[in-house]
Specification:
By secondary structure, the chain is mainly beta. The protein is 12% helix and 50% strand. It contains 3 helices and 26 strands. It has a 26-stranded parallel sheet that branches. Helix 2 links the parallel strand 1 and strand 2. The radius of gyration is 24 Å and the shape is elongated. The chain starts with a helix and ends with a strand. The relative contact order is 0.07.
């Protein structure tokens, strides 16, 4: 190659690198401290500064970054609404946010909410502290969600910590093409209704590399959820990974194409669970797969419960009308803290169909009072393959 060609190639690579660096640096920065936020500010003044920064960002035509610098900021409830001008928007929480402790400060469903946006990324390594202790003591359901995506198309939540939410820590609702990755969620094991991540009415949701320990479901999948993928989750304490509850309300949408893979569940009150209410309106949940799951001293490691009725809230003994079919449990291994390692309790009016148990090996926890584990089935049409411990309660191939 001639010297001229070498120089031209070097110049081309240099120009390309410069263009790429300018594209990265080209995001318009909206620093909340430039709009009045401060680590010494009040909940209300910081919330106003956050919204003022967002209003300016939303009006800008091009890629943007909403920045919360390092430090700890008291912030009241804020809803970041769209639509915004075209351009990819990033939110970087380098600092930590602290919520008001009193429920009286909340008039809506969420503390930090993103609504009606396209291409939004929330990241940054900071922490959202929901200050939930006062709300837990009141045992009130539907307490504010710490971080909510609603009506979002193409969104990401990554590299954040959430703790002590009053209610759900993260909720995804009526959204499409969402990625949740590298998230840590913590709350006391006795904190009520503090699900780590709840998904409802949404499609194409991916969750990866998540650590959750709370007082409720680590991850829960509600009505209207399609094409949800969950992998590499460490769950516990809490109530495990759940589909449901389903069938509590009229006109619920179906749930389908859910895959849970490569997870570890430890010291939880349930493992992999599908729960539907008795006397429910008709709906369906199908094509649901749990595979390659490690259980560590888990109560009820595998459970389908179609008589789900917490706190005796039900006013009927009628069977559930949620039809469950195409349910697979594959390579589920570990230890159970209860004699019932596998419980498949399905509706007598609409038996579970096409249920498969493949290579299930669940043993009593060492040094446990439980000496033997068993399977229990009712109203199930299914089959078992491969290694099975305990003996399966469906026919073995």
């Amino acid at each position: 190659m001639s010297l001229r060609m070498v120089l031209l190639k070097a110049a081309y690579i240099g120009c390309l690198a410069l263009i790429m660096s300018r594209a990265t640096l080209g995001d318009k920065l909206f620093d909340v401290t430039k709009y009045g936020a401060s680590t010494g500010g009040s909940f209300d003044s910081n919330a106003k500064a956050f919204l003022d920064a967002w209003k300016a960002l939303c009006a800008f035509n091009g890629p943007t970054t909403f920045l919360v610098p390092t430090g700890t900021y008291k912030v009241g409830p804020v809803s970041f609404k769209g639509p915004c001008s075209p351009g990819k928007n990033k939110v970087k929480f380098h600092g930590n946010l602290v919520a008001p402790s009193s429920l009286d400060s909340f008039k809506d469903k969420a503390w930090i909410e993103y609504d009606g946006l396209h291409e939004i990324t929330v990241e940054g390594g900071g922490e959202l502290d929901g200050q939930g202790a006062e709300a837990w003591s009141k045992k009130k359901r539907n307490s504010p969600i710490s971080l909510r995506f609603i009506n979002i198309i193409s969104g990401r939540i990554t590299n954040l910590k959430l703790k002590d939410g009053k209610g759900f820590h993260i909720a995804i609702h009526k959204s499409h093409n969402i990625v949740i990755k590298a998230i840590s969620v913590t709350a006391p094991g006795d904190s009520p209704n503090t699900d780590g991540i709840h998904v409802s009415g949404s499609t194409r949701v991916q969750m990866r590399y998540i650590t959750v320990g709370t007082g409720d479901d680590c991850i829960s999948i509600g009505p209207g959820s399609y094409n949800v993928s969950i992998a590499n989750v460490n769950c516990g304490p809490g109530h495990g990974i759940s589909i449901g509850s389903l069938g509590k309300y009229q006109n619920e949408e179906n749930v389908a194409h859910i895959r849970v893979k490569n997870c570890t569940i430890s010291e939880t009150t349930n493992g992999l669970r599908i729960k539907t209410w008795p006397g429910s309106p008709a709906s369906e949940a199908f094509n649901i797969t749990f595979e390659d799951i490690n259980m560590k001293n888990v109560a009820n490691p595998i459970i389908i419960d179609q008589d789900y009725c917490p706190n005796n809230q039900c006013n009927t003994n009628a069977p559930s009308k949620v039809k469950l079919h195409g349910i697979a449990f594959r390579r589920i291994r570990g230890t159970s803290s209860t004699p019932e390692a596998v419980t498949l309790n399905c509706s007598k009016d609409y038996p579970c169909k096409d249920v498969s148990l493949v290579d299930i090996v669940l043993k009593p926890q060492v040094s446990s009072v439980v000496q033997k584990v068993e399977s229990m089935c009712s109203n199930v049409i299914g089959i078992a393959f491969g290694a099975q411990q305990p003996d399966p309660c469906v026919g073995k191939h």
